[in-house]
Design goal:
- This is WD40-repeat-containing domain.
- Pfam families: WD40.
- Keywords: WD repeat.
- By secondary structure, this protein is of the alpha+beta class.
- The chain has 2 domains: about 60 residues; about 325 residues, 7 Propeller (Methylamine Dehydrogenase, Chain H).
- Helix content is about 20%, strand content about 40%.
- It is built from 5 helices and 31 strands.
- The strands form 8 sheets. Strands 4-31-30-29 form a 4-stranded antiparallel β-sheet, with no helix packed on it.
- Strand 15 and strand 16 form a beta hairpin.
- The two termini are about 40 Å apart.
């Protein structure tokens, strides 16, 4: 290594390094440092730099991997043995059972009851230890990932490293399942678990409630604020969609109620012209609504999913619709210009179902599998004209005491074009993921709310992030900071 020692009067190239973990001296040094008794208390940990190459590092890593593989093999062996004992322990044939007297039958029954109690206790202990091990591995993975981004020589753009949302205000409120903003971000509408809707003025991160609406009988699940008119839509557990408008008295009023779904409304999207409304529901159906004489009517209904439709998303051109469900399928429907209807174009079968997906543009969409620490990116293949998975992005899952509770609904993925950021709720975390010019994605911030019951949205310009969670019981307002 042709670099001088950092001690000025030595004026010679460094030759040695020290690997002792407790060493407090500078680890890269020259022969004169050795002569001055540097590192002499742990000389066995001193090596020549030229001997400390990639092979030694790899051998050390390989040893760790081999140790890990041995532990995994041992765990699998013990698991299999334990499972067989649980399945066949205390089993007795009918012939043996008939040969027992009453005292022996009583003893057998007592043993079985004791065995069942001990089995339950042991399984709970194993489950607790397994959860601790999984949490330790998640923590380690996150630390390794952070070290990858922080290590010298890693080319991470400075603007990506400094992007984040900072908490600026917190307001106690009842549970809000859905947030929407008008186009300029001056109005926010909250859809509540209690079925009410509240309209707020929103200015410089400050909220002021101006009107309460009661157009639904049950919880609000989703909303959509139109960009071309002063109207917004709300979908409810009561199976209806309400369209609200700003009347001549500058009050929000009910314009039309859409009915037709046989289950709660989970998602609402519109095309850019806002002449097509698409809704998905617990009834496993997707409905397309078009305007006739200023009133919305259902023009087509499609199935395909065998469970509730958790999320839908429309591409930029408005001719491709993706949907996901608990049936472990992503369906992609295309609009047929000749037949003037939506037709299934592709079915993607996935190992783990998810609640959230969204188009980034016409050829890319993101999908979040349930309880996974990776978000999947799909690209449209130019040759086959089919979407294929091309990337897995590491995202935060977060931590919660109620570890077995499933993820919550009503927080759709959102892509903000101006910031090129995906908002992705996953488990207890809200993740902000940046897309670069090469269509690569990296998580720039993970906010751990320590609860899965989180609901929220960004303003359309990406300047503010609004959430409600059941741990704080409050609306939290975060501002984009560069």
């Amino acid at each position: 290594m042709n670099q001088n020692c950092n001690i000025p009067d030595h004026e010679t190239d460094v030759e040695f390094l020290c690997t002792n973990e407790y060493c407090k001296d500078f680890r890269i040094f020259c022969f004169k440092c050795l002569q001055n008794e540097k590192h002499n208390t742990h000389i066995k940990d001193v090596q020549k730099i030229k001997d400390y190459g990639r092979e030694q590092i790899n051998r050390s890593d390989e040893d760790l991997v081999q140790d890990l593989e041995k532990m995994i093999d041992q765990i699998f062996h013990l698991f299999f043995t334990f499972k067989e004992e649980l399945k066949f322990g205390y089993q007795i044939s009918e012939e043996e059972l008939n040969g027992l007297n009453l005292i022996q039958l009583n003893d057998l029954l007592c043993s079985k009851i004791k065995f069942r109690k001990e089995k339950q206790s042991l399984i709970q202990a194993i489950q607790k230890n397994a959860e601790n091990m999984i949490e330790t591995m998640y923590t380690g993975l996150n630390e390794f990932t952070q070290q990858q981004y922080d290590r010298p020589g890693k080319k991470v753009k400075q603007e990506i490293k400094t992007l984040k949302f900072d908490l600026i205000d917190q307001i106690q409120d009842q549970q809000i399942n859905s947030f929407i903003f008008n186009q300029d971000g001056s109005l926010m509408v909250g859809g509540y678990e209690s079925s009410k809707i509240q309209v707020f003025n929103f200015k410089k991160g400050q909220l002021k409630m101006i009107q309460q609406l009661n157009f639904h009988k049950k919880s609000i699940y989703c909303q959509y604020f139109m960009k071309k008119t002063n109207e917004f839509l709300s979908g409810s557990c009561d199976k209806s969609i309400s369209i609200s408008y700003l009347n001549n008295d500058q009050k929000w009023d009910l314009k039309q109620r859409l009915e037709g779904h046989q289950g709660g409304i989970n998602c609402l999207v519109m095309n850019k012209n806002e002449d097509l409304l698409i809704s998905s529901s617990d009834d496993m159906l997707i409905k397309f609504w078009t305007k006739e004489n200023e009133l919305w009517e259902c023009s087509q209904t499609i199935g395909g999913h065998s469970s509730f439709v958790s999320c839908i998303s429309l591409n930029e051109s408005g001719n491709s619709l993706i949907s996901c469900s608990k049936d472990s399928q992503i369906l992609i429907h295309q609009y047929d210009q000749v037949q003037k209807m939506w037709i299934l174009g592709q079915t993607i079968r996935i190992k783990q179902w998810g609640r959230r997906l969204c188009f980034i543009n016409d050829i890319i969409f993101a999908f979040q599998p349930e309880k996974k620490e990776q978000m999947h990116i799909y690209h449209l293949d130019n040759v086959e004209q089919l979407f294929v998975k091309t990337q897995e992005v590491l995202v935060g899952v977060g931590s919660e005491r109620k570890k077995n509770r499933s993820c919550f609904w009503f927080f759709p993925q959102q892509y903000v074009q101006s910031k090129q950021i995906i908002l992705n709720k996953n488990g207890c975390c809200v993740n902000l993921i940046k897309k670069d010019s090469n269509n690569d994605f990296v998580t720039i911030q993970s906010i751990d709310f320590q609860t899965k019951a989180i609901f929220g949205r960004m303003t359309d310009d990406g300047e503010y992030l609004i959430t409600w969670d059941d741990r704080s019981g409050s609306i939290q307002i975060r501002q984009f900071i560069e």
